Every structure is written in C-alpha cells, then in structure tokens.
User: Which sequence fits this backbone?
C-alpha cells in the first residue's frame, strides 16, 4: 500500500534588531560568552521587560509580506519551564493573540508548478541562551552563555500542507529569501538565525485522518532538514509496516552521524502553564501604524523579478534567478548601476561569479569581487579595451586579490587589447609574410570557402599578440590585405 | 528629634537646629539601642547613611535642597539597593547584593533622603504578619507580643518605634495599609502604575505597587512627591503628569462625598474597629463631608480571586530563583534537577512554597479556566463595582483590617485566617486603585486602628488632602507607641 507524508514546519527566525526584544543589550553574534547579557537578560530580581518596537515592526512586515491578518491587539504570555539557559524560568512568547495571523506562501516546485502553503500564524518571542557542554569546564560542569537570551524571534507556524522534503526545502528557501528581502533577518543559518522544527506524520494514501506526528527540532540547514525528513519518514513507515505504532515525541537529528533519537515523549512533555505576562501590557497596533509599515516595505522578490524584466529587459528566467536572493539582486543592481549593461552584468553574475562562488562554497556576500570591481571588468569589455577571454583573466586576478580593480590588473599584466591600427597592420603583414604556403592555398581556394580559412591567420595573429589584439579589427584588416593579394 | 515628622525636620534642618549628620547619627544610635526589641531592620547601612547625610548637609548649606534632603528613611528589603543586601526576607536572597538601584531608591536618593538601611518583611512580601521572614518576626512597637502586620511589617515597626521618620513599603494586597493600621501610621498605596516597579522584587506583578509609610498624610505626600515618576524601564508605569501632592493638602473638603460600602461593615468586623471607624466618619461629617451608603457587591469574591491571581503570578515570578545565577544554591548538587529542587527547597519558606504550589496549580492544564480565568473575570467585576461607585462618590471609606494587631503566632498556623485579614484591602489592588490607611484611634486594649480611604485612579492628591484634613482636626496620628526605658533616656537627651 502506498504511503503519504504530511509535514508542517515551525520556523524560528531571529529578527535583525540591534537590541534584544525586552532589553537594551546588543544582539550581535559571536561576542565572548555572557558579554551581551544585561541584568534583564540575566533575570536579576526586580528587573522588568520593555518591548522593542523594531521587533514589532519587523513582525508586521513579515505579516504584510505573506498577506496575513495583523493582530491589532497582541499579547505576550509566559511559558513556564525550568532550564538553565532560560533565566526567568519562563519564556515570554505569544499564544492566543499572536502578532501575525493566517497567511500563505507560494512555492515553486521542480516541475515549475506552484503550490500554496498556508501559514497558521506567526508570533513574537524571545530566544533562550545556550548551554555549553564542551569546553574548559571542570568535570561534570556545563557552561551557560546568555548572549542569545532575549534575541527577538518570530516563530512561523505552517499548516500541514507540505507533502515531501522537496516541498519542505522549497518552502524553507522561499521563507529564507523573503525574510532577507524584508531585511528582518540576516539569514545566516550557520549562526542559528533561522531554525526549523519539522512535524512529520505518514498515512495511507487516501486516508483522511492524520497519523501520529513526531517533531524533529532545531534543524539549521536546508540539507539537514532534507536528510532528517527522509530519515524520519522512512522510520515511521518501517515502524508501521512492522505493525508498530508511532509515539508522539520530540526528536533530535544528528547531522554528523545522520541519525536521530527521541528526546522526550508527549507524556513527559511539560505543562507550560501559559498565562498573560503581567509585566507587558497588550500591544495595540492601529491601522495608521500598520499603514506606515506598509509604506516602508522594501520591494519583495516577486516584484523585483518583474521589475528586472521591465527595467533591464532580462529574460524571465534570468530575472527570476537574479531576484530570488536579495543579496544577489543587490549585487546585480549595483553592478548594472556602475557599468550600464544589464545583460553583461547578468551573464557575468550567473556565469563566472556564481561558478566561482559555488566552487568555493561561498555566498555572494562573501565574494572577493565586489560590484564595483565587476563593473570595472565589464566596462573594459564594452570599450574594447579587453576581449572576453582576457576579461576572464582579469576576473581571476581580481578574485585572487592580485589587484584592486580591473584597470590595475590590466595595467600590471599588460593585458590591454591592441586596437592601434598601425600596430595591427604590421602584425598582419608579418603573419602573411611568414605564411607563404597558407597564402598560396588561400589564393587557390574557391572564394566561397575562403572565409573559413581566415581562422588560421587570426589564430596566428592572436598568438603573436598574446591574445591582446582586437579581434574585430584584425578580421577587417586581414580580409582587406588578403583581398589585395588575391 | 525622633519625634519630628518630615515636615518638622525640614524646618529644623533649614534652621540649623541640627545637621543631617547629627540627625542620622541619632537615628543610627536609636536603631542600635532599640531595634533588638522590634527586629524592624534586616540591614543597617551606617556608613553609607552618614555619607549621604554629609552630602545632604552640603546641599542644605547651599540653600537649594529639596524637601527630603537629609531626612533619614529606610527601604523595605525588596527594593534593590546597589551594593547593599536585598534579601526580600528570604534565605533565597540572603546573599544577594544588587548591582543596581530600584527606581524609587534612586528617586529618593536624588531627593537627598538618607537611607538608614533595609527593613524586615514577610518573605517575598507574602504574608500579613511579618512572621514569614527568614530574619525572624518583626514586633509591633505598640505591643511587642503582637505582629506589626505585613508584609511591610518592618517598615511600619521602624516608623512606629521612631527608628526612621518614614519608610518605603510595597502593597500587593494590603501590605502597606494593614501594617500602617496595626502600627498607628499613615500608609499610602498609590494607583497601579503611579510608582515605578523597576528594581522592586516582584511578588504579583499586576498588583504590586510601592508607596510610603509615614507618621502623617503630609509626610506621605512629601515621600510620594519623590517616589512617583514615569519610568520607561517599567512598561506598566503610566505616563501622566504627577501632581504636587503637598499643594492640595489644605484644600477644603466641604461637600466631599464619602461612600461607605455596606459590605465593609458586616460579620467579622471587630467592635472596637467598627466603633472607631464610625467615629472617624462622623468626624468627617462634622468637617463638612457627606456620607453615602454604597454597595461593592463583589467584595466577598476578592479573597478567592486574589489568592488565585497573586500566587499564579508569583509562581512564575519566583521561577528565576533557581540557584543558577544568584541567590541560595544547595551544596554539592548531584545533577541539574537536584540543584533546582534542593536550592528551592532550602531557599524558600513554607508560605512561599504554599503560594507557588497554589499558583502553579491554578495555571495548570485543565484548571486554568476554572481558576485563573475565572479569577480574572471576578477581578473585572470588582473593578466595575468601584467604577460604578466613583460615579456617585469622591472617596470610599471603611476599615483597613477587620481587627487590630493580633498576637504573634496567633494566625501563623492557619493560613486561611491570615488571608481573611486582607478582605478590605485586596479589592483596591485588584481594581488598581489608590488607598490610604490613617490612624483613627486606639482599641480598648490600646492598639491602633486605621481608617481606610480608597480613591479613584490617580487621585492620590485627593486622598492625601482628605487624610490631611482629618489629621488637622484630630490627633490620633500624634499618638506614639509606648517605647521601653532605653528609649526614654534618649528622649531626654533630645
């Protein structure tokens, strides 16, 4: 019998605010442990939270981007449980009155078709700190780093509309590109800026009732998510086909060993004793506020794609590739702005730049070549200073840091294209003089076949010029001179 | 000089009858000699007090000092004081020295007040007798076999024993007004949001409010002038203009409409208390006020609602005391669970544990609707009672507590009888209103009895005016606790 998978995602997105959701401490990643935790983050007695307005603005932006209802009155609740990286003994989060209500996100599948994934809601909450079990601790001791404690998150909860790992990854990538485009998250998954909890169940195809689900928590890459889903779906089907049943439980995926284990079952789950946080009053957002956010929304990928087609005359395909990732789109537009050639910019970014980034497993923000430098290369192609082939050498030089700009590399390596007609004519003359046999063949040949024979001479000239001869000029001069000989 | 009120000390300091340093030394000496009887202080900060007094004297010499400059006060031990133990009357925080000041501590220091130290209290402000303090019960200076009330018991005992001219307290369900009543003092609970909660260790966040305990309404007004402020560190602080609470003290109360709730004069009210409160109401009539019988029909639900909401909030507020970052930590924990369990087991006293249990229960799955949600509904009904009443009257008057101070140990084994102490004070907190307790005479066995006035939202100026006018016509507030021989010697020196 055929099985069907049902997946729902809960995505934690760290908001790119400068300070924490309830305190003035910095949210900068990577500081020494506990240097970015103030008295509020440490839950010192008598301290009180004050909500960060920017976090609300970001959450509203997300809500507007997915066409969701914005909660005009949102309420923070306390979710009570004890853990060392949760200093207050409760997490401040939202439950009954979240900031973002139902919405949806459209994903594009491999076959080009689209599917709408419904969003149940998205709520604001604070991140916990981190427990550190490895490091310079005495035996039996663990460390706690509260730098992350209080970092603002939105938790985005999807409906169980996802049918397989491809869709899950497409959805996750779409969310990733959306929050970056909105500027509400830095998207640095390796730093935990975006983390996925995956709820998975399986059932027989055609069955109405959902199977018992498990939740695999804290996946922080698309790849791990894909692996974890495949593993869990297989496990559930195996268990069921062996006549067993699925326990509702939380699971942890280990990306190193490619295995997962149960963390706790539903029976062991906490009763979180949610209740409205009395230290934070309900936040009421009026229409004027929501409108003001709407007016300041950045361009979303879908609109940008259309604009790339309209404004830069890119093909729909190129526009889609260049607009999907905000950083790439920004890189593209910065390049175009400086070289005034959208087509060449697009070709270079989708070609040479992305090939080199992929080979080195880098993202566009880590590119050693910035848009100004790339625009410099393109400008020299356009003004015929260098050929496409030489341009690749210049690009390599820039990539390896051999110079600051295309011009300095062209200068230092002497790569400038020879377009001086006098110099080119003497080059042509020299090659003709040294190619007696080929010239004789050329003369004897059927005039219709002669153009095909030009290649040899061009090749010789390029060789002599070390590739720097202007190919178009060479062609013109060569044909002229050969015609004189015939 | 310990007989003086703040208002009197302000004059004496400015007339150079004595300096703030002399005054502070005098109080420190009294505390040293007398407080063993009352146990009203947990910490006495002599050095720091004298340093503040020196600075105050310099400011006074310059002639531009504010009202409280050089006045010796003390803080309830749940207000965080930078560099000074802030224990909350608990073993859990018996080693806790905050690196920051509560906003009210900061405000009073900025006004030049000299802090003598930190006063005793029921553990985490949970109690009506001060008996739940880890530092031992505080005693009522009027009768040391009796409790001073709670939870701000030390704050009241210190003022009544003249070991501070005024103190700060906090009132979650009556914790300023009830001890003020038991100790013959004037205690004000401001409107929720009037005084910042930043740096005040939380018991029940939606109910807690700091306020002054003083000898007179005028002194309470001077204290509140310094304490009240909008504070952007407290999201529940209300940004409305602060009155000068002194300015309207002498306004006429002719035509003042006083509401007298029938529910406050029913079964359980001690005869002496009823008699004295009624006499006070009659006095108001003589002064030109009119009395209006009113009904606050949900009064009987205040105790059950409060004892769900307050413990529920407390159960979460006290979760941070886990032995991990500060406070008491058990020896040699064998694992994380052991660390939590034993640190909290050892660090908290019985009443605190009782309330955490009750609160966690009321919030737990399956019980939330029946308890917590229901209690919040009742809270809204109680609030509506007051909103309706204040359409007809200016202030509401009645007893503070059903009885005068009870004996130490009398109720400590019966939590419910202790909770019943709060029947007249809880509704004010549940509604978020302001209330004041002022002395209205002594019972037949010579214990102070208080009159409670409840005011509308942010009507502190009105309450203080109404209380001050009473004190201009009566001298109940001038009666002081009979302090033993040791103090008489000092008195003659004065």
Assistant:
């Amino acid at each position: 019998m055929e099985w069907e998978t049902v997946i729902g995602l809960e995505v934690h997105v760290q908001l790119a605010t400068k300070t924490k959701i309830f305190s003035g401490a910095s949210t900068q990643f990577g500081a020494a442990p506990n240097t970015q935790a103030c008295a509020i983050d440490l839950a010192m007695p008598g301290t009180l939270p004050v909500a960060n307005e920017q976090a609300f603005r970001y959450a509203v932006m997300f809500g507007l981007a997915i066409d969701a209802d914005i909660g005009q009155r949102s309420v923070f609740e306390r979710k009570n449980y004890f853990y060392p990286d949760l200093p207050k003994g409760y997490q401040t989060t939202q439950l009954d009155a979240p900031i973002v209500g139902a919405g949806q996100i459209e994903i594009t599948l491999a076959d080009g078709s689209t599917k709408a994934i419904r969003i149940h809601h998205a709520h604001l909450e604070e991140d916990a700190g981190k427990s550190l079990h490895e490091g310079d601790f005495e035996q039996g001791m663990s460390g706690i780093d509260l730098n992350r404690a209080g970092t603002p998150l939105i938790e985005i909860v999807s409906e169980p509309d996802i049918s397989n790992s491809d869709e899950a990854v497409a959805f996750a990538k779409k969310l990733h590109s959306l929050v970056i485009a909105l500027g509400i998250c830095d998207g640095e998954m390796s730093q935990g800026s975006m983390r996925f909890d995956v709820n998975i169940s399986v059932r027989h195809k055609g069955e109405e009732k959902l199977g018992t689900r498990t939740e695999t928590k804290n996946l922080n890459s698309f790849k791990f998510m894909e692996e974890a889903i495949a593993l869990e779906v297989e496990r559930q089907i195996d268990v069921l086909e062996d006549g067993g049943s699925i326990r509702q439980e939380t699971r942890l995926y280990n990306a190193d060993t490619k295995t997962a284990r149960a963390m706790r079952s539903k029976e062991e789950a906490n009763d979180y004793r949610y209740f409205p946080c009395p230290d934070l009053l309900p936040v009421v957002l009026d229409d004027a506020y929501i409108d003001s956010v709407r007016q300041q929304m950045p361009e979303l990928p879908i609109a940008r794609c259309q604009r790339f087609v309209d404004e830069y005359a890119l093909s729909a395909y190129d526009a889609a590739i260049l607009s999907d990732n905000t950083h790439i789109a920004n890189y593209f537009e910065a390049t175009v702005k400086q070289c005034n050639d959208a087509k060449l910019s697009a070709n270079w970014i989708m070609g040479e730049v992305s090939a080199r980034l992929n080979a080195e497993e880098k993202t566009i923000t880590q590119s050693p070549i910035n848009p100004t430098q790339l625009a410099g290369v393109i400008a020299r192609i356009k003004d015929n200073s260098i050929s496409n082939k030489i341009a690749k050498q210049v690009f390599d030089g820039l990539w390896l840091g051999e110079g600051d700009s295309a011009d300095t590399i062209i200068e230092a390596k002497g790569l400038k294209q020879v377009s001086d007609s006098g110099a080119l004519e003497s080059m042509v003359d020299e090659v003709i003089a040294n190619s007696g046999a080929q010239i004789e063949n050329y003369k004897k040949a059927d005039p219709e076949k002669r153009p095909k024979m030009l290649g040899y001479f061009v090749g010789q000239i390029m060789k002599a010029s070390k590739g720097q001869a202007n190919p178009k000029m060479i062609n013109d001069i060569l044909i002229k001179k050969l015609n004189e000989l015939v | 000089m310990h007989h003086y009120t703040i208002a009197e000390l302000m004059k004496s300091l400015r007339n150079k009858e004595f300096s703030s340093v002399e005054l502070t030394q005098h109080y420190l000496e009294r505390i040293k000699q007398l407080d063993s009887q009352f146990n009203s202080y947990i910490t006495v900060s002599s050095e720091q007090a004298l340093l503040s007094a020196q600075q105050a004297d310099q400011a006074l010499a310059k002639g531009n000092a504010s009202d409280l400059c050089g006045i010796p006060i003390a803080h309830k031990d749940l207000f965080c004081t930078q560099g000074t133990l802030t224990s909350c009357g608990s073993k859990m925080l018996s080693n806790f020295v905050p690196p920051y000041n509560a906003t009210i501590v900061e405000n009073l220091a900025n006004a030049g007040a000299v802090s003598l130290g930190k006063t005793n209290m029921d553990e985490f402000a949970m109690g009506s007798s001060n008996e739940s303090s880890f530092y031992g019960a505080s005693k009522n200076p009027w009768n040391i076999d009796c409790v001073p009330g709670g939870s701000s018991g030390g704050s009241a005992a210190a003022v009544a024993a003249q070991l501070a001219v005024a103190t700060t307290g906090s009132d979650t369900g009556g914790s300023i007004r009830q001890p003020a009543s038991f100790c013959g003092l004037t205690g004000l609970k401001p409107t929720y949001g009037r005084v910042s909660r930043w740096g005040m260790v939380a018991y029940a966040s939606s109910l807690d409010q700091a306020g002054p305990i003083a000898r007179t309404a005028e002194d309470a007004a001077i204290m509140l002038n310094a304490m009240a402020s909008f504070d952007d560190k407290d999201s529940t602080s209300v940004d409305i203009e602060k009155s000068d609470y002194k300015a309207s003290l002498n306004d006429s109360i002719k035509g003042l409409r006083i509401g007298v709730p029938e529910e406050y004069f029913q079964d359980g009210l001690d005869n002496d208390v009823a008699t004295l409160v009624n006499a006070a109401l009659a006095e108001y009539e003589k002064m030109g006020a009119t009395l209006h019988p009113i009904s606050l029909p949900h009064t009987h639900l205040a105790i059950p609602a409060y004892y769900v909401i307050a413990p529920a909030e407390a159960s979460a507020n006290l979760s941070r005391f886990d032995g991990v970052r500060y406070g008491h930590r058990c020896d040699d924990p064998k694992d994380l669970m052991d660390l939590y369990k034993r640190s909290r087991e050892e660090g908290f006293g019985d009443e605190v544990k009782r309330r955490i249990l009750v609160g966690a229960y009321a919030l737990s799955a399956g019980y939330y609707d029946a308890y917590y949600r229901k209690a919040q509904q009742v809270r809204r009904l109680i609030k509506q009672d007051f909103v309706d009443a204040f359409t007809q009257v200016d202030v509401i008057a009645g007893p503070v507590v059903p009885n005068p101070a009870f004996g130490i140990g009398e109720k400590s084994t019966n939590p419910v009888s202790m909770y019943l102490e709060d029947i007249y004070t809880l509704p004010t907190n549940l509604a978020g209103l302001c209330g004041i307790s002022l002395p209205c005479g002594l019972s037949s066995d010579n214990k102070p009895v208080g009159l409670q006035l409840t005011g509308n939202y942010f009507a502190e100026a009105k309450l203080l005016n109404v209380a001050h006018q009473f004190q201009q016509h009566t001298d109940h507030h001038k009666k002081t606790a009979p302090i033993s021989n040791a103090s008489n010697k000092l008195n003659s020196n004065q």
Observations:
- The interface with chain B takes residues 39, 42-51, 78, 80, 82, 84, 87-90, 144, 271, 273-275, 278-281 of chain A (CB under 8 Å).
- The mean pLDDT of chain A is 92.
- Chain A has three domains: 3-290, 299-413, 421-485.
